[in-house]
Amino acid sequence: MATVDWPFLRIWATGIDGVELEYKVPLKRHATPVEGDFSAAQAVFELGGTVTACDYVQLVWEAGDGVSPWLRHATHMMYYDDTLAGVAQGLADAINTNTPGTGMSAAADGAQITLKYAGAAGANGNRVGAYANVSGAGTETWGAFVPDTQRRDIAHEIGRVDLDFGNLEGYVGPEFKNTARVPTESVRRMR
Predict the structure, then answer these.
(1) What domain range includes position 95?
(2) Residues 135 and 105 in one domain
(3) CB–CB of 56/78 below 8 Å?
(4) 126 and 62 in one domain?
(5) Is 1 inside any structural domain?
(6) Beta carbons of 169 and 25 less than 8 angstroms apart
(7) For the segment 126-180, what is each residue's pLDDT rounded down to a tens digit?
C-alpha cells in the first residue's frame, strides 16, 4: 500500500524515453466526501475588553500563494465612541472589500468575526493560520476558537480516494508546473 504526503501521491516512474521522473498526483481531484461537503477553512475571533481610544486591534492571517504579505491583515485604531461590535463589523467590511486580494472573507456577528479562507473548499488541507493582537493600552482582548465544522480531521471528511492507475495524471518534476500522464506501467516507487 502506498503512503501519501498530503495533498499529493508521489510516484517515481520511467517513461518510454527511459528517463525516470517524479510525478505528484493531486489527491483532492480523486476524493469523494463520505459525509457532507468540503468546506473552506475558517476561524472565529471575539473582540472583548474595554475600548480605549488610540489602541489598535488587528487580525493577521496566512493566505494562499500570490497574496501579498502586505494584504494579509486588517487593523483598526480605536476611537473613544467605538463599540466592540462596530469595530468587528468594520474589520469584516475592510477584509471583504478586497477578498480576492486578501485571500480571506469575513463575517461579523456582534463582537465575533469569522475569517474564512477564500480559496476553493477543501483547499489548503482545510487549515488556516490566523492570529489577533492589540497594541497601545491593551484594554481590548481577543478570544479565538475553531468552529465545530473544522474540528474534524480532513481524512474523516474525505474518506474515499479512487485512483485509476491506467489513466492517472500528475504534475511532472522537477518544476511540478505541468501535468502529464503518469507511466504507471513502470513505477519504481510511490509515496
Answers:
(1) 42-154
(2) yes
(3) yes
(4) yes
(5) no
(6) yes
(7) 566 788 889 999 899 998 766 554 444 444 444 567 788 888 888 998 888 899 9
Do 82 and 109 belong together in one domain? yes
59 domain-assigned? yes
Number of domains into which the chain is organized: 2
Q: Is residue 47 part of a domain?
A: yes
CB 47 within 8 A of CB 148: no
Cell of 58: 488587528
Residues 184 and 133 in one domain: no
Beta-carbon contacts of 34 under 8 Å, excluding residues fewer than 6 positions away, are: 156, 157, 158, 159, 160
